[in-house]
Amino acid sequence: MSLPPRLVPLLTEFDFARTRLTERLAGPTLDSGNGTPVAVSPLTDEEYLWEPVPGCWSVRRHADGPGEGATVLVGAGAWGRDTTPWPHPEPAPFTTLAWRLSHLTELLLLRADHTAGTRSLTRDDFRPSGDAASAVAAFDAAATAWRAALLTADETALDTVGYCTYPHGGDAEEPFWEIVWWVNQELLHHGAEIALLRDLHRWSPRH
């Protein structure tokens, strides 16, 4: 099946943002933007879970319970992600690199499932990663799954309201092409946040 013309630039943008974030996390180099490679150290466990300010929301062991201000650790397995039922606190707590990467991985994986999979996964089925290497691998797998789901969409699907049935957003009320755009902006802005956290960690006086 040929790609719908409207999907081509969105898929290109997704591929760029995904590659950019993966290289920023795992290295060994990152394109500086002008073709010059910049060395990148792989994300470490300490950096993955680094809490730069008091009261961070993060990924934690279920056995340890939620962090300050959180009431729930959502997710399957030994680890969960800090959250509260709606409405969330205002102002929003500062979230760690682990929290942001887990959130991004979850939304990619679940939206892939609710587009071209079982259409049954929820946040309670997602398994947050407790270490950096597993988290990067999980992100890569989720991004691959979402990309494959995008390739199932034809022009009719792009205009279909509820083509993606992801239960934790407005997907059931939006045409699919708007969901594709939304996922791209999630990847772009969380990827930028993660990159900034890596820079802050490198220049933190403690490191």
Compact overview of the structure:
The chain has 207 residues and is mainly α. The chain contains six helices and five strands, in the order αββαβββαααα. The strands form two sheets. Strands 3-5-4 form a three-stranded antiparallel sheet. The protein has a two-stranded antiparallel ribbon with strand order 1-2.
Give a written overview of the molecule.
The protein has 207 residues and is mainly alpha-helical. It has one domain (7-56, 96-203): dinb family like domain (Four Helix Bundle (Hemerythrin (Met), subunit A), Up-down Bundle), CATH 1.20.120. It has helices at residues 7-26, 45-48, 97-116, 132-150, 155-159, 176-203, and strands at 29-31, 37-39, 59-61, 72-74, 79-83. The strands form two sheets. Strands 3-5-4 form a three-stranded antiparallel sheet. Strand 1 and strand 2 form a beta hairpin. Helix 1 (7-26) packs antiparallel against helix 4 and helix 1 packs parallel to helix 6. The chain is globular.
Number of helical stretches of at least 4 residues: 6
Contiguous low-pLDDT stretches (5 residues minimum) are none
Percent in helix: 40-55%
The helix/strand order is: HEEHEEEHHHH
Based on the coordinates given, report the CATH architecture. Answer: Up-down Bundle
Task: Could you tell me the CATH topology label.
Answer: Four Helix Bundle (Hemerythrin (Met), subunit A)
Class based on secondary structure composition and strand pairing? mainly alpha
Name the CATH superfamily classification.
dinb family like domain
Mind telling me the C-alpha Rg? 17 Å
Shape: globular
Q: Give the strand order, joined by hyphens, for the main sheet.
A: 3-5-4
